[in-house]
Amino acid sequence: MGKTEWSMWANEQALVSSAVALLGGLLAVAGQFKNWQFGVYAIVISLLVAVLEYPRGKRQKGRTVERTGQFCFTAVVRQGRLLTRNYFIRFVFYLVISVACCFHLSTVLSGVCFIITSIIYMVAALKGEEWIPVEREKESSGPNIIPEPKNPPPRRPPSPTNRL
């Protein structure tokens, strides 16, 4: 079997965690529950995580399928250099942001999801993985068109002096 790329799994888990945090934060703010400020925190963090995690990293082997509109977010993540490329730093980041999410009932599920995301990123960091941006492939100008023959059949092979 092939080698598991933990970073791909962690990337998807982080996006789901940000969606859960957004929904929990909106619920806390809309309901005006006690300590609804944790809901505002969850909304802000979920948007930050979505920007950080939306661009997929390049796979180690095989072809990487880009997300729609990934190019804009890739430029943002690329500017972060070590802070956004290193998975050990992402492990610590998700562990730290999960703490405040665990203080309110509507955001506790997102806190647990962020803890799981941090564990997956820790495994990816220990395996030596790193975020590498997906470079766009240069599109060819079109198919290679062979010109139509000028001589009727039977044709002789073109001589070195008489090429088409």
Which properties best describe this structure?
mainly alpha; 164 residues; 0% strand
Commentary on this structure:
With 164 residues, this protein is mainly alpha-helical. 55% of the residues lie in helices and 0% in strands. It has six helices and no strands. It has helices at residues 6-31, 37-53, 70-79, 82-85, 87-101, 108-126. It is elongated and about 90 Å long. The model has no long low-confidence stretch (mean pLDDT 84).
Beta-strand residue fraction: under 5%
Bulk shape: elongated
Low-confidence stretches: none
Rg over C-alpha atoms, rounded to the nearest angstrom: 25 Å
Task: State the share of residues found in helices, binned by percent.
Answer: 55-70%
Number of strands: 0
**End-to-end distance:** 50 Å
The averaged pLDDT comes out at 84
* Class inferred from helices and paired strands: mainly alpha
Structure summary:
With about 160 residues, the chain is mainly α.
Helices, strands, pairings?
Elements: H1 6-31, H2 37-53, H3 70-79, H4 82-85, H5 87-101, H6 108-126
Helix pairs in contact: 1-2, 1-6, 5-6
